[in-house]
Amino acid sequence: MVRFDDFIQAFTQLIEQPDCDEPRLFSQGKQLLSELVSQDDWLPAEFTRASAQRYQQYLLHCDPQQRFSVVSFVWGPGQVSPIHDHTVWGMIGVLRGAEICEEFERDPASGRLSASGRHRLLPGDIDLVSPRVGDIHRVSNALSDLPTVSIHIYGADIGNLERHVYAADTGAIQPFVSGYSNPGDS
């Protein structure tokens, strides 16, 4: 995973810059992630395995200071996430396959959700999430016959961070912690 190790080193250098605010992080981090997902020859097979039960979330790296984590998401054919948020910044790069991202906004008064966008991500495409740019979405594998693999970078140890899922019809919020799919993790 030499390519991945180089990515981690470059991303760590980026995040350690004193003037690395979210816009700069997104601008420069997006370039780094784009370079990483432009080649599909570095991710070990154990982090690309789909499950018939649900999408998989494999931890690839967690910064020792928990400033960021890198995760491989593997979507089986037709799998869909619940509507959820992240509460931190995130970057998503598609390595193989295709994803559909449905974005939502939450009305502060009623709590109800309304659809605010929908787009398809193909290999090499990068998407951004954060409380500042839009943080509530639902993701699905756009393919009915093959898995999709995407690489996600988040501004925390995302598998251990309390986040929220939202009821599509009412906008009701439920806290959750996603965990990881790595062997030995629950």
TrEMBL record:
GO molecular function: ferrous iron binding; oxidoreductase activity, acting on single donors with incorporation of molecular oxygen, incorporation of two atoms of oxygen
Residues annotated to bind Fe cation: H84, H86, H137
Keywords attached to this entry: Dioxygenase, Iron, Metal-binding, Oxidoreductase
Keyword Metal-binding carried by entry: yes
Keyword set includes Transferase: no
Any one Pfam family match given in the protein's UniProt record, by short name: CDO_I
InterPro entries: CDO_1, RmlC-like_jellyroll, RmlC_Cupin_sf
Superkingdom field: Bacteria
Family annotation (CDD domains): cupin_CDO
Protein family according to the UniProt entry: Belongs to the cysteine dioxygenase family.
Name of this protein: Predicted metal-dependent enzyme of the double-stranded beta helix superfamily
Protein source organism: Pseudomonas pohangensis
